[in-house]
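Tutorial, part two.
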Amino acid sequence: LYEKVRKLAVNAWSCVNAPAQHAAIEALSGPQDAVGEMMAEFDARRKLVVDLLNGIPGVSCITPKGAFYAFPNIAGTGRMAKELASDLLEGPGVATIGGPDFGILGEGYLRLSYANSQDNIREALARMRRFLGEE
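Running the prediction step on this input gives:
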């Protein structure tokens, strides 16, 4: 039974299925207006998150050049990254990931996603600022 299932699995998982390939062709060959609009929106979100993070005492953030994540340095807060990430989630409800989850050099950093609306980003970082100010 294993060999028969393995043969099926290899064909199912070793390459992209045909419907997905056809969808990709359509997406890449069709109008690209939405791509430019989304790129501009993510650029605005990136600038917003960096500006707001740099306005929080003890936090500094360089401008990310890829993906939609910021990786601010939180060493100035005096907090350990994973502990702070947990406290931010449990307290003001701000989801972050402690830098050590990305390797041993990640202590002193948090990862935040800016794949959300600008209003939600403003709200989350206002909560983070208030939380850190209360300590």
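The chain has one domain: 32-134. In part three we will examine how such features are distributed along the chain.
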